[in-house]
Amino acid sequence: MFKKHLIKFAGFVLALMLILSAGGCSLNSYSVEELKVLYPKAFENSLNEELYYWKETVNAADHTSWRTCNVFAEIDKKYEVIRDANGKPANMKIDVLEEYNKKNVYKALCGKSSGNDGDKNYLFENDFDDSGNAVNYRKTEISPQEFLADDSFKSRFSLDAMLKEFEYLTLDDMIFDIDNDLLEHKGKTIKFSFAVTDEYIDRYEKEFGKASVFKDSKYATMEFAYDRFASVVVYAEEKLGSGITADKEIYKLETVYYGPIVNMPSYDAEPWADA
After folding, report:
1. CA atoms of 28 and 114, how far apart (whole Å)
2. How far apart are CA 35 and CA 24, in angstroms?
3. What is the percentage of the chain residues whose pLDDT exceeds 90?
4. Do the bridges between strand 103-115 and strand 93-100 make them parallel or antiparallel, or are there none, so unpaired?
5. What is the value of pTM for the model shown?
6. Crossing angle between the packed helical segments 32-47 and 159-168, to the nearest 10 degrees
7. CA–CA separation, 88 vs 144, rounded Å?
8. In degrees, to the nearest 5, what angle opens at C-alpha 56 toward C-alphas 52 and 60?
9. 3-state DSSP call for residue 111?
């Protein structure tokens, strides 16, 4: 008797799954119409975050590059930012690294540094020579908040700058290649695939005077986690031989909202003492 009921139950589950599939939905589905509400909100939520860690990878036809930026501060057990008497994030630090064609080219650290004259806020910067050796050491007495507000940081490393194109992109610019416009929705994570229209590529270049990261792409995937931007990966079609192609990752941006601990050097120790 138990076996008979088990078979009936299994049959019911299978029938339910077939009905859901035939009806264009699934237990983990998410519609484009629902995404239209979440999409702008996810970027708004991301840009409201004070702390973030992003990593960008570019595999262009003529170069490769890799960049990271970690805006760090202390948090409590409830994952809330700890603040000082002035309401600023406590012990904020910033760590930036740039790599071009698999060689480091720029490094920056900003935050509280200890030395013989007490603690001071400094921006430490250095470049790298062709052999990968650190050169051109320089330091500037500046707080992390001042560095964040500086145009050189805002235009190159701020989360706002990194997300600018994806925030500008709309769902009307996307071509969804998932059956019935269904998206993958698992718990607090939403992931979807899309191509972009030719009209968007042209409009972006005219608007900003530079090529879109989606130019010459085949498709892309984007992911949101906890109602915030998490990643975008852009793919192009690569020819491997006669009639053989493969999808090549040409651009990737990943973001989390609490990065690794940042350690600051001493401002009066080598190589920074005379910088």
Report:
1. 51
2. 16
3. 75
4. antiparallel
5. 0.86
6. 160
7. 10
8. 165
9. strand
Task: Please determine, for residue 29, whether its predicted confidence score (pLDDT) is greater than 70.
Answer: no
What pLDDT, in 10s, does the model give residues 142-165? Answer: 999 999 999 999 999 999 999 999
The single-letter code of the amino acid at 73 is A
- Sorted by sequence, the CB contacts under 8 Å of residue 186 that are 6+ apart come out as 28
Q: Which token pair is 79? A: 């994952």
User: How confident is the model over 205-253, as pLDDT tens digits?
Assistant: 999 999 999 999 999 999 999 999 999 999 998 877 777 778 899 999 9
For tokens 């560095």, the residue is 147
**Rounded Cα gap, residues 264 and 68, in angstroms:** 17
Q: State the residue for tokens 């989606």.
A: 214
Buried b / exposed e along 43-79 (16+ C-beta atoms within 10 A): bebbeebebbbbbbbbeeeeeeebbbbbbbbeeeeee
128 to 104, 153, 202: CA distances (angstroms): 6, 19, 36
Separation of alpha carbons 148 and 22, rounded Å: 52
59, 251 Cβ separation under 8 angstroms: yes
Following DSSP, what letter does each residue of 133-178 receive, concatenated? -EEEEEEE---HHHHHHSHHHHHHT-HHHHHHHHHH--GGGEEE-S
Q: Which distant-in-sequence residues (6+ apart) come within 8 Å of 241 by Cβ?
A: none
267 token code pair: 């401002």
Phi, psi at 213, each rounded to 5° = -65, -15
Distance CA 273, CA 31 (A): 58
Examine the pLDDT at 17 and tell me if it is beyond 80: no
- Find the helix or strand (DSSP H, E) in which 43 lies: helix 32-47
What is the C-alpha to C-alpha distance for residues 39 and 47, in angstroms, rounded to an integer?
13
Would you mind telling me the total number of residues written for the chain in this entry?
Answer: 275
Rounded Cα–Cα distance for residues 243 and 245 (Å): 7
Using the predicted structure, report yes or no on whether residue 22 has a pLDDT greater than 80.
Answer: no
